[in-house]
Amino acid sequence: MNIEELREHLCSEYPDLCPLFSIEFGDGVLSVPAPRVLEAAAGLKDLGFDMLGMVTAVDFDEEFEVVYRVRSREMHVGLVVKVRVPREDARVASVTGLWPAANWHEREVYDLFGIVFEGHPDLRRILLTDDWVGHPLRKDYDDPSVIRRPDYL
Amino acid sequence: MIEPRETPDETVETAVDAVGVPDSAAAADDAAVAVTDPVAVEASLAGSVSVLEREGDRLVVNIGPSHPSTHGVCRVLVELDGEIITNAEPIIGHLHRGIEKIAENRTYLQVVPLTDRLDYVGSMYANWAYCRAVERLAGIRVPERAEYIRVIVCELQRIASHMMSIGSTGADTGATTAFMYSFWQREQVVDLFEQLCGARLTYNYVRPGGVAFDIPEGWVDRCRAFIAKHPDAMLEIDRLLFGNVICRARTKGIGVLDPDDAVAWGVTGPTARGSGVDWDLRRDDPYSVYPRFDFDVPLGERGDCYDRGRVRLFECIESCRIIGQALDQLAELEPGVIKADGLPRLLAPRPGDAYDHIESARGSLGVYLVSDGSVRPYRMKVRSPAFSNLAILPMLAKGHTLSDLVVILGSLDPVFGEVDR
Lengths: 153, 421
Known about the structure:
Structural class of chain A: alpha/beta
CATH architecture of chain A: 2-Layer Sandwich
Distance between the termini of chain B: 31 Å
CATH class of the largest domain in chain B: Mainly Alpha
Strand order of the largest sheet of chain B: 1-2-3-4
CATH superfamily of chain A: NADH:ubiquinone oxidoreductase Nqo5 subunit
Helix content of chain B: 40-55%
CATH topology of the largest domain in chain B: Cytochrome-c3 Hydrogenase, chain B
Mean pLDDT of chain A: 84
Order of helices and strands of chain A: HEEHEEEEHE
CATH superfamily of the largest domain in chain B: Cytochrome-c3 Hydrogenase, chain B
Largest sheet of chain B: 4 strands, antiparallel
Number of helices of chain B: 18
Strand order of the largest sheet of chain A: 1-2-5-4-3
Strand content of chain A: 25-35%
Largest sheet of chain A: 5 strands, mixed
Oligomer: heterodimer
Radius of gyration of chain B: 23 Å
Low-confidence stretches of chain A: none
Structural class of chain B: alpha+beta
Largest interface: A-B, 34 and 36 residues
Number of strands of chain A: 7
CATH class of chain A: Alpha Beta
Order of helices and strands of chain B: HHHEEEEHHHHHEEHHHHHHEEEHHHH
CATH architecture of the largest domain in chain B: Orthogonal Bundle
Shape of chain A: globular
């Protein structure tokens, strides 16, 4: 199945999700507002997206973008779900109930970005120690051991 | 367990335990004898295995982070009821170097050596996955010859990586000979890599736009000589290790992974294929020149440690088939064309994001790159298969004995450089 067929399939099964779908550089992208994450995820799971590849985030100053990659083994197609959350109140619903694979990935995002996944069964730091201060992958993370490389290098 | 057994009778009982899922009552009695000696408990605190809590038959034991049987720096907090594991929680992050953060401070080419340090048993894979993401982001077309060389080195890398895994399965179950046999096979692959790029562990060979060096003279013949002998060596290791009664007793029926659980938990690679999940990116989401080769995807049936180990073993034989076909097709291509034309020294891809994945020895390895148009990646994320695969350890270990935990952990084949990043 290619991206265009996926768009048609998605629009016929879930007309609500259709306006959120776009194609960016050959990847199917579903840009979902934060309150509708669970609804969209359940729809995708129902549609046959049975594997959650990863959950990650990107720091865009004012907002964080949480990125999910799901894949359907049957349809041989992948899809990206992007969710923007405000920096001040960074929280989004957890998808562990639908894909248990999200468990460790959401813990990692929480650890390195400080985004809270509501409804996660066991949200604690995973890579860093429990007493670590700050979230290192945020762009404004400051630590004496982080040395910015000057632009001319 | 911690202390050696005192009487021969108990030793026999332990051996019986290892065969199947043991009778919990009998094993609990057995373990109660073992932990009553305070001197032994005291002594064990000094080592890497230590008792943290004890309450009747319930014990919390810490294993690692530095323990030979954890295949790297993994700490496992094990809750035991007697000898039976009720919960095993892996605690990771001891090898976390912040590679994703460091990458934000380097140019696209300078990140390649960092990716070597992710999966240090299979560096070529991380190199390749990263380069594919960069090429997708910057719209670089890789010459055909470079694609063939990448396939050849990555299939050789699969053999080298699986040999490490199979060898340590032998070591985990007490078979040193199989370890030596498989390491000799790995050694020959590493020698080939040394002739190709001068390095034996961190190759830094696959670069954005192609590969670093062309194949040296005589290398193809040496490679052909290796793949001619390797399948027989694999069948010999199959007889030696997986035909051995002790290894079978220690791996069959241990750590059974249900195929539905494997999919739900995002488990990929030989770990999922051991459970019969018919999913291989080389065939199901073909990339590079893989559609031109004829190969099979070995599958397991029961999803236990035995099947996972044997899937790896037969994958090595398939890898030899792919390498043979790739070498044949490579001979028809013009030598020397190994890099894309007109690559600038400093890549500054268009703003946007790109993700690409390949089938590594451990599963689907992906790299997600976000560019803001500058010469450095704005964000790099590595989707490591070992990280996702390790998350199912608590599920697999439950109900087995402590000695089985080592075998189960080994059968997931985690590399902690990649888990912790």
